[in-house]
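agent: user wants the full assembly modeled, not chains individually. Plan: 1) parse entity lines 2) check alphabet per entity 3) run joint structure prediction 4) return tokens. Steps 1-2 passed, two entities, 639 residues total. Proceeding.
--- entities ---
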Amino acid sequence: MSPLDSHGSPAPGAELRELPDRELVVRCQRSENRAFDELVARHQDRVYSAVARFCGNAEDAADIVQRAFINAFRKIQDFKGDSAFSTWIYRIAFNQAISFRRENRRSTVSIYSKEDDKVVEPAILENPTEKLEGEETKKKVQQALDLLEEGDRQIILLKDLQGHSYDEISDIMQIPKGTVRSRLHRARLELKSRLKPYIGTLKEDPAS
Amino acid sequence: MNCSFDKEKLSGYYDGELSAPEKSEVERHIASCSECLRDLGELKSAALMIKELPRLRAPQSIAEGISREIQAAGKVHSLAKFRRLVLWASAAAAALFIVANAIYLTNQNSKAPGADAPLVARMKNSADAEARPAAAPPAEAAKEADRSANQGFGARRQLESRKETGEEDERRAAPKPVVEGKRVDALRERAEAPAPASAKPGEALAKAEPPAPVASAPAGPAAKSAAPLPAPPEVLKTESALAADKEKPAREPEGSRKADADLKGKAAAAAAPAELPPVHYNVMAKEIAKARPRIEESLKRMGITVPLPAPQPMKQPRNREAENTIALDLTDAELLRLREELEKPGDARMVAASSVEPVLPGFRGGGLFAKKDVTTSSKAFAPSAKEKEAKDGDDAAPVKSPADPAAGPRRRVTLHLVEVKSLPPAEGDPK
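--- prediction returned ---
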């Protein structure tokens, strides 16, 4: 069997897959590097999705996520376990992304090519409801996201893309829970106003 | 838009993040407010647009890059660990080396100024060996001899001279202060002066000085196999018979001295009377073989015969130390003459040495004992107060002509012949 699993990442020991994040972190702190491989395998897709939507560029996102995990590995001895590993890695990844964008000062380039509107979106992990029909709508949603203020974008991605609770977002972003709610509401309103023409393309979502 | 309801609660309501009272409040409000109900619907739509974006799969390069980095970091970590280990090991080794050196040097320093302790220990060994009866098993005697032979040149020589004179000194030290060492100018002074005058009546030894007979030193070189010291009679004589010595000549007649010559080592030395403190000289010569005949010749001219080395016992290793030690009873004038004649060709030098620890050639000239020697020698040859008094005082004692070098009080002179590669620089040479 190949040392890489179906996701293309190194296949950690099967026994590690059964362990919770907290135990894997403890093993990492005991210099068991395979445990970190398992943590990467567990979290890389979700972190990559959020970062790719956050920075709108697939290549940058890959670079940022890689750096974020490497930073996490280097700082693993400092990780006290006060929060979940997922919370911690999101925080590192978003901070990395913000620093990266400031360093590179590049314009927010969509993960969709501007020139020919050709989708350069990376491999899609899942598209559960297939409610977004057509590449145009996806592109407009990403463009609307790109126009949001960084913090608002981060919050809406953490909540609506990743499904984190307010508490988790508060923890990741190190802001009060009330701020999370108000900024989330603001981001949704702005997104709604930008995407109004496309809202009709969405299937009617029952208010229930 | 006219509704003043807290719209943020609509988001909270949608997200299920409201408390139960807030939730009831929202539900009551949207039941009656169409605007807020519409807004809630739009918020849901916006959220759904994000929620239903496709999830992206992380490219393989991310995990590979991370894995690579972790391995490299591990290697770096191991390397750093190894470097730290090496560093610590080196530091520990260096510290150990320094500590060991410090301990070694401390020990050396504590030994150097007073090398007495080991010397005494060696002396004890050697004395034990000598005190062993002649009937000791040959194997054991040979072993002892080997040990003695291994004790090193200087130590052995010191030992010899100490054995020879130390005990003798001890006995003589009782009546008068021990003065050792010598300085040549003082020697010259004494030689030119009239023969030492008789001491005050209280000074038994000086007073009892008879006209010097032919000065043939009876003392043979120290012999390792010296018989146990016939101590009691000697001690008696030296310690208590001062009054008797007034009537009796201090120096024994020739025949008696000849008999003494047959005695070995200290026994002979102790028996030979000498009025002045004993002195020791290191005779440093480039070739002992040349220096020895010159000494003998010089002494012969003064009418003194050099005693033969004591016969060595059979099956004993050759004792060069004993062979190279010459003990004589000389007046200071004779000693001076001997020195001049010995040093004339320039290939030998007589250097004063401490009687207790004859100074090794290597320590001369700035050595540890140089100062000590100077002080002791000046003491030794500066005429003592008593001697001065005697000189200035009455002429009751028989006075020899100053021209006669054989006149005057004698002292035990022990010459240690040392072969050296180069002669030490002349120090305080009156020439």
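agent: reporting back. Chain B is about 55% helix and 10% strand. Residues 8 and 40 of chain B are 10 Å apart (CA to CA).
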